[in-house]
From TrEMBL:
PROSITE patterns: MHYT (PS50924). This is MHYT domain-containing protein. Keywords: Membrane, Transmembrane, Transmembrane helix. It comes from the Bacteria.
Length: 290
């Protein structure tokens, strides 16, 4: 029989908290991406790695906070621990690939499209892998068109967020980018949940795995601690409000420096040509005597 699915068993509390968590992870991850454009070398790689960890943790935490409000009438839900950890690793890895592409190639053209697509696919992949970790007395089925819509939402919004983060125009642009990234994560999640139907077997067979409360509560501590650590780094950043200054072209890896414009030479003062006068020209002419 078809089970009654409820994704809002706690009302608007879980969607709101989940969205704010996604915005926090997006803000920290995208801020690190913006900040890396002002540095080079190991500092750039370190900031991008921190940003990937923050963004991936925010995506994962948002999903499982929202899942605490998900219930199916007629059966209990349990989660597989190994697959749940794998979904966290997948979110961090794919978000990292997208962030590194934009961080090193810039938020324009093919790099932006590729980075946004990979990040969006990471959001969607993390969601469906997390759903695959659920075990229950029944089967999960998805509507193909709605699933495709959730993937497109994730890719489009992630691309827009990376573009906004790459503008390097200060704090307000970072806030806007984080709100868009939060929309990408929560939009993909709840669109994917709208594609779900559950067929309950009704055999009362015990489901394997652990309950959501027993498993997710301790597992959320690590990602939340990572978000706090990334938040401290961003807050202590002296350029958090003003935005980083762009690295001069000559210092960017792979970008040749532009030759300095030569100033026009000062005009050489014109020298007066002095005509030589012979001795006869210096004599005073006297009137001829008649």
């Amino acid at each position: 029989m078809q089970g009654t699915v409820d994704g809002f068993s706690y009302g608007l509390v879980t969607p709101l908290v989940a969205y704010l968590t996604a915005c926090l992870g997006g803000a920290l991850g995208l801020r690190c991406t913006t900040r890396c454009m002002a540095v080079t070398g190991a500092w750039r790689a370190g900031l991008l790695a921190l940003g990937a960890a923050a963004l991936g943790s925010g995506i994962w935490t948002m999903h499982f906070i929202a899942m605490t409000g998900f219930t199916v009438k007629g059966t209990t839900l349990h989660h597989d621990r190994a697959m749940t950890f794998a979904s966290l690793a997948l979110a961090i890895a794919m978000a990292g690939v997208g962030i590194f592409i934009v961080g090193y190639r810039g938020a324009t053209g093919a790099a932006l499209f590729t980075g946004g697509t990979i990040t969006g696919l990471g959001i969607a992949s993390m969601h469906y892998l997390g759903m695959a970790s659920i075990s229950l007395d029944g089967e999960l089925e998805y509507n193909t068109l709605t699933v495709a819509a959730s993937v497109v939402i994730a890719m489009a919004a992630a691309t827009a967020a990376l573009w906004a983060a790459g503008q390097v125009k200060g704090f307000l642009w970072s806030v806007g980018a984080s709100l868009v990234m939060g929309l990408a994560v929560t939009g993909a999640h709840y669109t994917g949940m709208a594609a779900l139907t559950v067929h309950v077997h009704g055999t009362s067979a015990p489901a394997t795995g652990e309950s959501a409360g027993a498993l997710l509560a301790p597992m959320l501590i690590g990602p939340l601690a990572l978000l706090v650590l990334a938040g401290v780094v961003v807050i202590l950043d002296p350029m958090m409000i003003s935005g980083p200054k762009a690295v001069p072209a000559g210092r960017r890896p792979g970008v040749p420096a532009h030759p300095a414009a030569h100033s026009a030479p000062h005009p050489t003062p014109t020298r007066r040509r002095l005509r030589y006068r012979g001795p006869m020209e210096h004599r005073t002419r006297t009137p001829q005597q008649r």
